[in-house]
Amino acid sequence: MRRCCKIKELQINEEIREREVRLIDVDGSQLGVVPTKKALEIAEEKRLDLVNVAPNAKPPVCRIMDYGKYKYELAKKEKEARKNQKVINIKEIRLTPNIETHDLNVKAKRAMDFLKDGDKVKVSVRFRGREMGHTEIGKEVLDEFAKITADYGVIDKAPKLEGKSMVMYLGPKTE
């Protein structure tokens, strides 16, 4: 059985092994510290479950509730929270230090499409061989790229040399 959400499993009814527990009623009022057997009897009278909500407390805190309904409400809240999340993807565009203007514009146009969709863009310039001695050319390429895409994105992380490539992150422009 696949579970849709991460609900931590609580001890219910006979699974509670403590001698006595602090009991909370359905409406939230405290009934005090009572033996576990008496707490189970009270829960059975009300046709509800005895749920250990704070097992690490001294004595453990148990609540009388409908456990199935409680799990359902938690799953519903979690599903609602997931529905409201926006997943931000990071798309990567690779350039070379000696890229031609037209090629740079084509890559920038692609990056603008990503930024319009709300994705972040990782722009990297890869250096090979002797190009490592002229990393400033790569920085100029990235600056030019940022200038072209300025209408749709802003620089999240400035160009930084990481190993054999210089990396810059662009984020979508917020209006």
Query: What would CATH call the architecture of the largest domain?
Result: 2-Layer Sandwich
CATH evolutionary superfamily of the largest domain: Translation initiation factor 3 (IF-3), C-terminal domain
CATH fold name of the largest domain, please?
A: Translation Initiation Factor IF3
Mean pLDDT: 85
Rg, Cα atoms, Å? 29 Å
Question: Gap between N and C termini, in Å?
Answer: 44 Å
- β-strand percent reads 25-35%
Structural class: alpha+beta
What does this protein look like?
The protein has 175 residues and is an alpha+beta fold. It has 2 domains: 11-83, Translation initiation factor 3 (IF-3), N-terminal domain (Ubiquitin-like (UB roll), Roll), CATH 3.10.20; 90-172, 2-Layer Sandwich (Translation Initiation Factor IF3), CATH 3.30.110.10. It contains 4 helices and 9 strands; from the N terminus they run E-E-E-H-E-E-H-E-H-E-H-E-E. It has helices at 36-45, 67-83, 101-116, 135-148, and strands at 11-12, 20-24, 30-35, 49-54, 61-65, 90-95, 120-126, 153-162, 165-172. The strands form 2 sheets. Strands 1-4-5-2-3 form a 5-stranded mixed beta sheet. A hairpin with a 6-residue loop joins strand 4 and strand 5. It is rod-shaped. The model is unreliable at 1-7 (pLDDT under 50). IF-3 binds to the 30S ribosomal subunit and shifts the equilibrium between 70S ribosomes and their 50S and 30S subunits in favor of the free subunits, thus enhancing the availability of 30S subunits on which protein synthesis initiation begins. Monomer. This is Translation initiation factor IF-3. Residues 12-81 form the Translation initiation factor 3 N-terminal domain. Keywords: Cytoplasm, Initiation factor, Protein biosynthesis.
